[in-house]
Amino acid sequence: MSEPTSPAAIPAAAPPxxxxxxxxxxxxRPGEINLTVRAVVVGMLIGAVMCLxxxxxxxxxxxxxxxxxxxxxxxxxxxxxxxxxxxxxxxxSILENNALTTVASGAGYMTGGGNxxxxxxLLMVTSVRPEPIPMVAWFGVIAALGVFAAIPIxxxxxxxxxxxFPTGTATAETIRSIHDAAAGGGKDKAMWLGGAAxxxxxxxxxxxxxxxxxxxxxLPLTIGGKALKDWTLAxxxxxxxxxxxxxxxxxxxxxxxxxxxxxxxxxxPSLVADRIVTTVSYKGxxxxxxxxxxxxxVASGLTSFAFDYKSVARSFSGLAGIFSKSKRDQExxxxxxxxxxxxFPAGFVVLSPIVVxxxxxxxQIPLWAACIAVPLAVLMGFxxxxxxxxxxxxxxxxxxxxxxLVFGVLTPGNLTGNIMAxxxxxxxxxxxxxxLTTLKTGWLLGAKPRHQLYAQLFxxxxxxxxxxxxxxxxxxxxSVLGGDEWPAPSCVVWAGVSQAxxxxxxxxxxxxxxxxxxxxxxxxxxxxxEKLAPKRAQPFIPSPSGIGIAMVIPASNCIxxxxxxxIAEWLRRYKPALAEKTMVxxxxxxxxxxxxxxxxxxxxIVAGVLSK
Length: 612
Prior knowledge:
The protein is an all-alpha fold. It has a domain at 33-215 and 312-320 and 338-533 and 577-606. It contains 25 helices and four strands. The protein has helices at 19-26, 37-61, 68-84, 94-108, 115-125, 132-149, 151-160, 166-178, 185-209, 239-246, 250-273, 282-307, 309-317, 319-323, 327-332, 343-363, 367-391, 396-410, 415-445, 449-474, 489-503, 510-532, 544-550, 555-574, 576-606, and strands spanning 216-217, 222-223, 226-227, 235-236. The protein has a two-stranded antiparallel sheet with strand order 1-4. A two-stranded antiparallel sheet has the order 2-3. The longest helix has 31 residues, at 415-445. The relative contact order is 0.20.
């Protein structure tokens, strides 16, 4: 991440009450171009591509990769090429790049916030696949509601409280740096990204297209009479996993390796020996380990969430003041720049009935329960936005299970409704936080907030139109979800949590019930250690997210992501200048290149051009 907001962006001497006045005076650029037709078109294209890339990565690893940093570099490179070809008459400006990146972010994050986790989990627990057009509407309307939910809290969190939103700040600094022609940073980063993307695409084609290189490499050793690869202990030739690992913290990386080896080399063999697990395969093992893994994720997420009670309290206590208009604000002219406060209630009135109707039509959620879900989700969105601003982590792992628990009580036995009600919470929370992250970038660069809201809505439309048909093409048979090829760990967790909360734990075997209890205790303990331990001890405390995810993805994924995290950590320590210049573009390039080629290959297989 970049350094904190620069003095040029927000003068340190400005008292808190004068942040908006100072911004209007020294940072805001009213006469410069923001949102343009070409920014919308290119942003939608880049966002659609990154949505496809994130879709592939998500079902492989359980993570959705960041969009804004990669998008602003790609946008800069694209317009440099268009200018060289004399297609574009003028260069992409800083604020135009910011608007373009906002469009791309709205589309690229359509895979996050529980959207694909919920959709995948839905197909895992039911044989019914909703029609594409209603699902496009579903994802689009939820995301749009999240965009409007960001309006009433933007001024409080960004203008007045000056929350960090680290990714938004990093994106602002990246846009500044790549548009500095003297530094040449934009061209360098674009070249690194392009080279890495080409390498990733070639590896994917040689492996999955022509089958010239193996998908996994394993030592000729055995555990319990079974080869290591049967226990998923192998090294994959998927560079997308290296790229994903490089974008994680080293703490998360080593936690993945530690828990992955412990799960598949120690725990799984003992389960097989005791005949608790009867099949030595990823799907056979994860059918048991998902329970302690999900328990760790839920317990640690809720515990961390509880530690942010001050943020939660401020989210709600500040709402009355957020909606009020002051004479001073009008004198400063800030309201002529910001999105009008009435846009949020108007958006809520228009979009909420659509969400409620779709909940009843598609997922048989009772009208009264759906009417509870939407305002609950908006309130959760306010909370998620503040937590994101302070920590850079949107707490969907905590908010989703909370909603699943509520609906498990309100509508017992309705697995579909349980999952998709949580999807409402996750989707609204993520897109509110996503817009606020990009609004932070715009605040630092002097952009127009209204133009960024328009940009985000364009991106939401592009993402919704892409993500559902892409999912259906890439994964025509949902039974592959939760397998070694498509581990889909987040889907496995959401499906498991839904089954537990909807039908109770009575169907679980005794050992799994004990594992759930142990997982809950461990999740709380790790979250407490994470919050209370001295700062110097933090790197040595296992990441609860890393531990929990490692129990629901193959060990081979854990090993590959650890290697990526280790390489990145070595560069940061011993080659910091090289790391700053190459880490984000190379990692993003590996992910984009392999994932997009993987999608092309999957489509060619569906069309009968290639064989598996």
